[in-house]
Design goal:
Elements lengths: L8 E4 L16 H13 L4 E3 L8 H7 L8 E5 L9 H15 L4 E6 L8 H13 L3 E7 L3 H14 L4 E7 L11 H8 L2 E5 L20 H4 L11 H14 L4 H10 L3 H11 L8 E4 L4 H11 L6 H14 L10
Parallel strand pairs: 1-2, 1-8, 2-3, 3-4, 4-5, 5-6, 6-7, 7-8
Helix pairs in contact: 3-4, 4-5, 5-6, 9-12, 10-11
């Protein structure tokens, strides 16, 4: 076991929020404080939230607990067309800053594109907000590579704050980002923070056959829940992931023989065998405290056996015909 992960861990707080909000599993300040205590004590580097998580209540929960000095990053989701227009964006950022107070915003992300607004208008307001001290760094999330290049170039030419971090979906199975997005980010010196290292739970080992995802009891409360789940995730994850489960058969057998849980394999892969580079980070999440414990433990373990890596590579090829994009929209 290593003393710490190669790539810093950030805790994603989409599961924090008032009871009844989408994907929320931790509903009390006592639970949130316990998470902060555990994560900080095990070398965690930051917390990541959004004005969309827990319908906005995730930020409020973080504001009310002691984060042990760890910074907070947040994202501004375009809940409606025009949400990233200057006036609406300013209000959303101010609301986020107020919701998180007394904690300051380290990285402010645009959660995903609002293509109804010219990027130059959005970026002009981002620069103004940065100059006013609302956040330290500017980040993008769920944008296509050509959009990243366009936005970086606009900001560079105008002398505005540049995007320095990109948060995107990346794991042992979903690796399309390696082909198109990563070269763009490396060209512009933008760090990559990987979310969904367990593929939305697919690599947790919970689902072993396609029909498991049709079992209401097995998907209840997860991102694949067709009753409470987010419709964006239904389209991008459920319909695609369900089709690739059979391709895991050989990998699952090898992991069973090696006594390596699937979640452990996924987190060891992203730390030791992925295309991440120095300056990048991994965002982990959980719906139970034991999962946080395990994710922290697994992330600090060493490289995987070569036969496991080869089987992961083979299984990942089947994803290409079903998962062809890397953005939420």
């Amino acid at each position: 076991m290593s003393d710490s992960p190669i790539f810093p861990l950030i805790f994603g707080t989409s599961a924090l929020g008032k009871e009844g909000t989408t994907f929320s599993h931790f509903h009390t300040l006592e639970e949130v404080q316990a998470i902060a205590d555990l994560f900080a004590s095990r070398g965690g580097s930051a917390f990541d939230t959004s004005n969309a998580y827990g319908n906005g209540t995730s930020q409020e929960y973080l504001a009310k607990v002691d984060l042990k000095g760890l910074p907070v990053d947040t994202k501004i989701a375009p809940h409606f067309p025009g949400a990233h227009a200057p006036e609406a964006l300013r209000k959303a950022v101010q609301d986020a800053a107020n919701a998180l107070a007394p904690h300051k915003i380290r990285i402010l992300y645009l959660h995903y594109p609002d293509r109804s607004v010219p990027y130059e208008d959005t970026l002009r307001e981002i620069d103004a907000l940065h100059k006013e001290g609302y956040f330290e760094q500017f980040g993008l999330s769920n944008y296509y590579s050509w959009e990243v290049a366009e936005m970086y170039t606009i900001s560079k030419l105008k002398g505005w704050v540049l995007p320095t971090v990109y948060q995107g979906r990346y794991n042992a199975m979903e690796r399309i980002t390696e082909e198109e997005l990563f070269p763009c980010l490396r060209r512009f010196g933008i760090a990559f923070y990987a979310y969904s290292p367990l593929a939305g739970g697919l690599l947790s080992g919970k689902w072993n056959k396609p029909e498991d995802m049709d079992n209401i009891n097995m998907v209840a409360g997860t991102r694949f829940d067709t009753i409470t789940g987010n419709t964006v995730f239904q389209k991008l994850l459920y319909n695609s992931y369900k089709n690739v489960i059979p391709s895991f058969a050989a990998l699952t057998q090898a992991l069973d023989a090696a006594k390596i849980p699937p979640a452990e394999a996924a987190l060891r892969w992203i730390q030791h065998h992925s295309a991440l580079k120095p300056g990048d980070a991994v965002i982990i999440g959980a719906s139970k405290m034991v999962q946080i414990e395990n994710n922290l433990k697994y992330s600090a373990l060493g490289p995987l056996p070569e036969n496991i890596v080869q089987l992961i590579d083979k299984a990942s090829q089947s994803f290409k015909q079903y998962v062809t994009g890397y953005c939420l929209r």
